[in-house]
Write a structure and sequence with these properties.
disordered C terminus; 13 helices; Cytochrome Bc1 Complex, Chain D, domain 2; disordered N terminus; mainly alpha; globular; two-stranded antiparallel sheet
Length: 428
């Protein structure tokens, strides 16, 4: 990859050193920051696609987060292989890396800002990155796969050695300082920060170029089926999907993230194809462990996983934290019939009896979400949606894939005044 931006950085640094008034100093500082970010992103992009950072020498970040699928998994495997020989199996399916800039820091009692919604409401456990919300920054998140024994399986020393001999090492030094790679710990941190900088590139990771964004900004119309699907998506008596996957713009005009980023227990069925699950005593309990350590043994958080964005969901072939499902229609059907036809979803014991919520021990069943569409579900009840309505909802979710537009349509909109924020209506 060619080194770009070095001249820009040099000019910015000269501007900072030159005497001038306060406004000049501020502009120069901003220019230097932009130049530094550009260099970090250049290095981060190179690192993201470089398999040399894995112990196997065959796995890069892009191996699990494919750009052609908007940084979703590249295939329909339940979880991706990793480790020194690419034979290790992890616990969870890779989440998308898009729209992570919208995820708030983790909070046990999260309140949205007044620009977003009613800030008097306690939304409970919300935010943080990864499926269990255990870190708040992109750099901290980037460290996990680099050293995880069932992912890239490297070490700090190994990462440091790799970046020092990389052809783009000079780019990272230009961004962070000539000696940033001298020490293993700082070199490792520099790699993580470069990855975070790349993954914060809005044009690449948060473009807002879906058909639904075109619809919200008046650049497209939804088909009749897509409009029906949107109505069902938002209807509390039907899908009620928008309760967690917000579909409306914020009070300040912010485009919808299609997630409230809350941590929720859905009682997704146990995935017997995950090797660790062959141990009947083992359970992946999300926010209360085993990957997240600060809430170990705290029953209130067991079984909770962060709600992912539905943007680009139609480009995935693996769904939920454990990769149990591979068809979006099955995902919707699970929501509609989890407690109506549990035998369809859950394993059976030796006597053939269905084991509802088979991946969550009984002491934590009180955490399981019972809001619509789960409300009033019981054997013999009718699902809240018909097969045709399921098709309509899926047609709507397909409008959430980026690439329909060439550029972000919200950038050209005038900023909303405080007076117009609360009264602004979403076009229908």
């Amino acid at each position: 990859m060619p080194r770009i931006g070095h001249a820009l950085l040099a000019l910015a640094l000269l501007a900072i050193a030159a005497p001038g008034n306060a406004d000049d100093d501020v502009r120069a500082t901003h220019a230097a920051a932009r130049a530094r970010t550009r260099l970090l992103r250049e290095a981060g992009r190179a690192i993201f696609f470089d398999p040399a950072f894995s112990a196997s020498g065959k796995q890069s970040c892009a191996s699990c987060h494919a750009p052609q699928r908007r940084y979703n998994p590249p295939n329909a495997l339940d979880v991706q292989p990793g480790g020194p020989r690419l034979r290790a199996q992890g616990l969870r399916a890779p989440p998308t890396l898009t729209y992570l800039d919208r995820v708030p820091p983790y909070d046990n009692h999260y309140h949205e800002s007044e620009d977003e919604a009613d800030n008097s409401i306690d939304n409970g456990p919300t935010g943080g990155l990864t499926w269990d919300g255990r870190v708040d920054t992109g750099a901290a998140q980037a460290e996990f796969p680099l050293t995880s024994p069932f992912e890239m399986a490297n070490t700090q020393a190994g990462i440091a050695a790799t970046i020092r001999r990389a052809r783009y090492a000079a780019t990272l030094r230009d961004a962070l300082g000539a000696r940033v790679l001298d020490d293993d710990a700082t070199a490792f941190a520099a790699v993580a920060h470069a990855l975070a900088a790349f993954e914060s590139d809005a044009d690449e990771f948060a473009p807002y170029t879906s058909k639904y964004d075109a619809f919200l900004t008046g650049h497209a119309q939804l088909s009749a089926q897509e409009q029906r699907g949107l109505a069902l998506f938002e209807d509390e008596r039907k899908g009620n999907c928008a309760q967690c996957h917000r579909s409306q713009r914020g009070l300040d005009g912010t485009p919808p993230a299609f997630s409230d980023y809350g941590l929720i227990a859905l009682a997704v069925p146990r995935n017997a194809r995950i090797a660790r699950n062959r141990d009947p005593a083992f359970f992946d309990l999300g926010a209360c462990g085993p990957e997240r350590r600060d809430k170990l043994g705290d029953a209130d958080y067991c079984g909770l996983f962060r709600t992912p964005t539905l943007r680009n969901v139609a480009l995935r072939s693996t769904f939920f934290h454990n990769g149990k499902f591979h068809d979006l229609r099955d995902v919707v059907a699970f929501y509609l019939t989890r407690d109506i036809t549990p035998a369809r979803w859950y394993a059976k014991d030796a006597q053939g009896k269905t084991l509802p919520y088979d991946d969550l021990p009984a002491p934590y069943h009180a955490n399981i979400n019972r809001d619509p569409p789960f409300a009033d579900q019981h054997p013999g009840a009718a699902p809240r949606m018909t097969a045709r309505e399921v098709d309509d909802v899926i047609a709507f979710m397909q409008t959430l894939s980026d690439g329909y537009l060439k550029t972000n349509p919200y950038r050209s909109e005038p900023k909303r005044s405080r007076a117009s924020q609360a009264s602004a209506a979403t076009p229908r």
